[in-house]
Design a protein that fits this description.
The chain is about 20% helix and about 30% strand.
Amino acid sequence: MKKILSLFAILFATFTLSAQEQVLFDAAVKADLDGYDYVSNFEMRSDSGYFTKDSFKILEPNDKGIRFMAIVPEDKYTNYEVVVAYPSFLNESGSGAGVIYNAASIKQIKVEASTNRPDDEIVLLYSTSPTGPVHEIKMPQDSNKIKSLEGYELVYDNPLYIDDPVKREVKAKPVLGADADGIYLRGFKIKANPASGFNAPSQYSIFYLRKVSVVCDKAFTDEQLEEARVVKEAFGIDENKAAIEKVKSMIVERNRVRETEKSLMATEPTSDAK
């Protein structure tokens, strides 16, 4: 009888934790770490031999979002990544600054963006723990329906999501020390593909990122989270202390390198006023 009651309790909890929509990223959000801005300091990178540092350019966000450009070979398959300025778990959850804490199964993802080349594909990069492995989700799209530099919304519906809690594999997870407790934005991979169909080629792969929304289950109840907060405080548990210190040191070093690079740049000579 006790086992049956426990099973019903878990099923009820599963039902109350069912999917709800939250904003994972919004280009208009204001977030920073010790004054280091989250949105305006996204970076671009690639392991491909087709790119140099001069191949990439990032512009300040506007009403269309963060603006990225990569100069790519027109007839080759390659890819590059846009990555967050610093680990998203350091921001406030649910604010649109790259983190949704207390998240479990993903039901749906929406990405509001625009691209210059309709054949370029967008892949979401995320993790389910602050410093865990990176997962990829390729956003479904129809290149014949995407118009160059016009805003669009891509929607991914998780085919593995189970709507009926009765049909799910039921497991009770520990609130402290869980190996997956949220959704943490790590960036995007842009797969630059040669033009196909009626699309003409271009060397300019442009990606505007405006917003990312996620429909997902909760991992824990509000009561569980509050008790976890109390326990962490009582035992002095800070799971991310080392990671935070490492990130802050990285930002200091990054700023130092940028300032050094800036000081070495050529300057235009000025003529004395007559």
